[in-house]
């Protein structure tokens, strides 16, 4: 694996290797000094053309825990406002010695273009592009599901075979939904999408999942329910159901959550819109893993960076060296 552009590019073995490596990386966070020497002397640029809280800070934390030098680039305040292209921006950064690029962009396909155009030599990691893909989000979600539904130690080497995962909400605009459908299918899970008819993408029948419009019917058959944010910034106002109508039919409140099996978890990639797709009661409940997902994101991104850039030594040997 030279780049990470799409969850669909990962085989089952690739994905399980990343999840297992992330378990090794999670041990680092439990130590007083949360650092490994793995990427000492390497420079990683976080190239963000679109706003982010979780992904940007999580990549930065992962890079620093692996001892990389970090350059944070935000399009706002840069020469992008003067018309500089993605190609010239990326070549400018590489000329300063960047060894890898993490990119978020509002245009679907921008990371793929950067990785395949020959503009730069550095590995490219997609941190979310338009409505297309967000592969590290899908990996951290799968990591969280595996820990919660299979078990932290029992999960090593395992996939999510037979687990029933429901994604609810604005599927049309969601790169998280696309990435999760691809990865969860690869890991053997059964995925169901629940959305208003206007927020279901054309061609969804070719995706490896079921589609339902009956949230109350699907909840009792779910091991994990992931609520998606309604992305008003990407939609025409005419598309938009009223907040009240949306919450009534597709929002998760305490009464609905009670229909889920006792072991089932509630997930959200963030940012949440409390009162819209999820009530505060559910978001703050013990069954909701939203904060855990953020914590797990650092370990998963450390694993991805390690496997793309870290050389041949095993993550285990690195973590053990630091422990000695
Ligand atoms: N889940 C996610 O991508 O959040 P941010 O937009 O805050 O990075």
UniProtKB/TrEMBL annotation:
| Residue ranges constituting the Aspartate/ornithine carbamoyltransferase carbamoyl-P binding domain according to the UniProt record | 2-146
* Record-annotated Aspartate/ornithine carbamoyltransferase Asp/Orn-binding domain positions: 162-308
Q: Which InterPro entries match?
A: Asp/Orn_carbamoyltranf_P-bd (IPR006132), Asp/Orn_carbamoylTrfase (IPR006130), Asp/Orn_carbamoylTrfase_sf (IPR036901), Asp_carbamoyltransf (IPR002082), Asp_carbamoyltransf_Asp/Orn-bd (IPR006131)
EC number(s) reported in the record: 2.1.3.2
Q: Signal sequence: where?
A: none
**Reactions it catalyzes:** carbamoyl phosphate + L-aspartate = N-carbamoyl-L-aspartate + phosphate + H(+)
Task: Summarize where L-aspartate binds, as residue positions.
Answer: 82, 175, 229
- Mind telling me which GO cellular component terms the entry cites? cytosol
Gene3D superfamilies hit by this protein:
Aspartate/ornithine carbamoyltransferase
**Listed GO molecular functions?**
amino acid binding; aspartate carbamoyltransferase activity
Give the PROSITE patterns listed for this entry: CARBAMOYLTRANSFERASE
- Where on this chain does carbamoyl phosphate bind? 54-55, 104, 134, 137, 270-271
Report any one BP term from Gene Ontology. Answer: amino acid metabolic process
Pathway assigned to this chain's UniProt record: Pyrimidine metabolism; UMP biosynthesis via de novo pathway; (S)-dihydroorotate from bicarbonate: step 2/3
Function, please? Catalyzes the condensation of carbamoyl phosphate and aspartate to form carbamoyl aspartate and inorganic phosphate, the committed step in the de novo pyrimidine nucleotide biosynthesis pathway.
Q: How does it assemble?
A: Heterododecamer (2C3:3R2) of six catalytic PyrB chains organized as two trimers (C3), and six regulatory PyrI chains organized as three dimers (R2).
What is the protein name for this chain?
Aspartate carbamoyltransferase
Taxonomy, top ranks, is: Bacteria, Bacillati, Actinomycetota, Actinomycetes, Kitasatosporales
From the UniProt record, report the name of the gene that encodes this protein.
pyrB
